Amino acid sequence: MPPVPRTDPPLSFADLVRRGTAAQQPRQIQPRLQSLTGVRHVAEAGPPAGAEATSQPSEELKPASESQESLLRKKRDVGRDYRDFVVNTRQNLVHVRESTKGTQGSPVMLFSNHVRLKSCSQRHLYKYNVIYTPDIEDGRKREALLSELEKLLGNRCIYDGNSLLLPHSLGETKKEVVSKLKNEPVKITFELSRELQTTSPDCLRYYNILFRKMLEKMDLNQIGRNYYNKNKKTEFNEYRLEIWPGYVTSILPYETGLTLCADVSHKLLRMETAYDLISHTREKARGEDAKEKILRKLVGSSVLTKYNNRTYRVDDIIWEMSPSSTFTKSDGSEISFVDYYKERYGTVVTTLNQPLLITKGKWKKSRQDTPHQPIMLVPELCHLTGLTDDMRKDYRMMRDLSTHTRMDPDRRQHKLLTFMDALRKNNTVQKELRDWNLELEEGFLSFSGRTLQDVRIHQGRRMFDNHKADWSKNTREAPLLRAMSLDHWLIVYTKGNYETALTLQQNLQRVTPKMGITVRNAKLLEAADTVQSYIRTLEKHASQKTQMVLCLLPTDNKEIYDGIKRYLCINYPIPSQCVLKRTLDRPKTPVTIATKIALQMNCKLGGALWKVDIGLQNAMFIGIDCFHDIERRRKSVAGFVASIDPDLTRWFSQCIIQESGQELVKGLTTCLYTALKLWSEQNSSPPRSIIVYRDGVGDGQLQALIDQEVKQMESYLENSYRGQKVRLTFIVVKKRINTRFFIEKDGGRLNNPSPGTVIDLKVTRTEWYDFFIVSQSVREAHDSICCCFAMRLPGGQHLHPINAFLVLYQIL
C-alpha cells in the first residue's frame, strides 16, 4: 500500500523575498502574510506591473545550441489550453465510436449560444516557430521586432508570443533575418513547424488571438480573458460601485466544425482605491493597530489597475517603501515609481507618503515551479474589485445590482444577437475575417436534445416523483429511509440567545416525529462569543455519549466557525451543526428551517434520507476533486469519496495532501483499496461496476489524467480481481463552461431547459465521448459574474446550471 505523501511546512512570503528570485515560487505563500519589515531592497526583486522584463544582450550573434532549440521547440508547440483536443478517447470505446447520440428520453428542440465559423477556402496555413538570439523575454519587444518585417511576413500574420501563423509560405523551412533592438543585433529565426488545415486544433489559439484583436478594434477593453465596454458602464453612486457589461468568447472545434461561443458577462468594480481603504481604515482605527486591520482587509483581495486593465491579488504591504522609492530597470538604470508611471503610462501619482502593495502576480497551477518575481503596486492606482461581507448583507444593494446582471433567456439572447450584429456590421472585423477566409454564419446553432424521465425517490415505504428536481415538500410527511435517534446532545448559545435556542429545540421536536426521528431534550449551555469560550464549554460538558453539538452563532465570524469545527473534527471528534441566529430570524416559517436542520443532523449521525433507482446493481460511485488554496497558496488537498453500499447511503472519504497546485492525484491506489475493503465488510461480494466522477481537471491535462489516475485504478483492479470482472467507468466533469442552452416555449419566448435535459450532438467533440446535462431547476436566472470573486445573487450563479461530462475510460 503506497504511503501518503509527506507534507512540509510552507515558507512565508517575506522569507521568499529575502531569499531572492531563485526561491520565489508562488506555491509557497503563507496563509497570513507577514509585513515585510526591514526589507528595503525588495524593490529590486521585481519592477511594477508592466515594467520591462530583463533581456539578455550579447556582444556577438551565436547560434543556439541543439538542446536550446529543442527546448524552445517543445515549449512553443501546441498551446496548453488546446492539448486536450488532440486526445482521442472514443477510439477505445467501441460502442460509441460511430456515434455518441443516445436514444432514451423525450426529444426537445434547443438553441445554443454557438455560431458556426466556417472556412471559405481549403488553402493551408503555415506555422513557424520564432527564435530570438539572444532570447527576448519581453513580449512587446518581440512583437515590435516582427512588425518591422512586414515586407517578409506581409500584413496578415498572427503571433502568440512564441510562434507565428501565416496564410502563405516563406519559401524556406528555415529562414534567418537580423534586426536591431536599441542598436543591439538580434537574429530572428523562422522555422517551419507544420502545414495546417484551417480546422486544425493547432489553429485554435491563433483564431482566438485574432478574435481578441477584433474585439479591441470594437473599443472593448480586455480584463483577464474577457472584454468589457467601460463606455456603457452603469454607475451606482449610492453604493460607490460600477458595472461594466462585456462578453466571454471562445472559438473551439465541434462536430459541426469551428464555432464561436459567446456569452454575456459583467465586471463589477468599486469606486474606491486601495489607498482610499488604507486612509479610511487609519481614520477609524482609534488606537487599534491600524496596520493589522489594513492587512486583514487588503491581503487576499483583488485590485484592478486601469492603466493596463490588469487584475492582481494583494499578497502583502510594504510600509517602508513609497512611490518615491526606486527600483532597477532592465537596462540597469534606477527610476522611482512616480517617474516610471508618468513616463510609461502618463499617470501622475499625487500621494507620496503611501506604502506599496506587493503581489506575486498571476499564479497558474501548471506553472507552480516557475520562479516568479514579486510586483510592486501603488495603492492610489489600484481600484478595488469584488464585494465585502457587509455589502453582501445589504439586501437592497444586492437587489439593485441583480437588476443589471440577472438575465432571463430572452434578454440574454437579445444581448447576444446585438453583439453578433455588431460583429457583422463592423468593416474592420469583416476585413480581418475575409483575410483569413473565415465567415460567421447567421443565427445560433439549433438542434435536438433529450429530456430524461424523472427519477423516482424512495423514502421509507413511500415513493414519489422528482418533479423539476425538487422533492423537499414530500420529505416532511414521511419517515426517512434510515432515521437516527438523538438522545444525548448539546446546544451551545451566546448571551441573550437562550429563548432562541429553546425555541429551536422545540421546533426540532415538533417536526421530527413524522420523519421517524426521536429527539430528546438537549443540554443548553451558554458561552461567550469567542473560540476559547466555545471550546472551554465543550471540554467541560462533552463526553463519549455526546452524539451531536449544535452551536447557535450570533454572527458569521469565520474564525469562530473554523475554531469550533477544527476542535470537533480533530481534537474531540463529535458531529456538529452550526446555525446562524439570523437564519432562525428569517420570515420563513420556523418549521421549514427546523426541518432542513433536522435532515442535516440526521445525515451527520449516520442516517439516510432517501434513495433513488439508479438502474445498476452493486455499483460503487466515486467522486474525486482537488482544492487549491490560490489565495494563501498552501498545500493542495485532494478529496476522495466512495459509496460503500448499493443504495448510495453510506460513504467513505479520504484526503490526500499534495504539493501546492498539483492537480493529478498520486495516492488513488490507497484510497481505492480502503473503499473496496469497507464495501466488502458491508456486502457479500465486490461491486460489479465502479463509476468515477473526476472534477476540477484543468485544461491540457486529459492525457496526463489517463496516463496517471486512470492507469492507477485500472492496474489495481486488474491485479486485485483477476478472476472477477469489475467494470470501470471514468468520467471528467466540467462545470465552468460558457455554453448555454435555451428552449422555445409557446408564444416564441425562450426559457431554460428542464432538469435532466441531455445534449450529445452538434456541440460535442468528434474525438470524445462527451455530453452536456442540465442538472438543476432555476426559477430566477441571471448572468454569471466574471470577476475575481464569487458574487452571490438570488437564483444561483448561472443562467441554468449545466455540467459537461467527458467519459475518458470505460470497460463494459
Structure explained in plain terms:
There is one protein chain. With 812 residues, the chain is α+β, with helices and mostly antiparallel strands. Among the domains are: 160 residues, paz domain (Beta Complex); 149 residues, Response regulator (Rossmann fold, 3-Layer(aba) Sandwich), CATH 3.40.50. It contains 20 helices and 39 strands. The strands form seven sheets. The protein has a twelve-stranded mixed sheet. Strands 2, 8, 9, 10, 11, 12, 13, 14, 20 and 21 form a ten-stranded antiparallel sheet that branches. The chain has a five-stranded antiparallel sheet with strand order 4-5-3-7-6. Helix 14 packs across helix 18, helix 15 runs parallel beside helix 16 and helix 19 crosses helix 20. The longest helix is centred in the last third of the chain and has 19 residues. The chain is globular, with a radius of gyration of 29 Å. The N terminus is likely disordered. It comes from Bos mutus (wild yak). This is Piwi-like protein 3. Belongs to the argonaute family. Piwi subfamily. It is found in: Cytoplasm. Keywords: Cytoplasm, Developmental protein, RNA-binding, RNA-mediated gene silencing, Translation regulation.
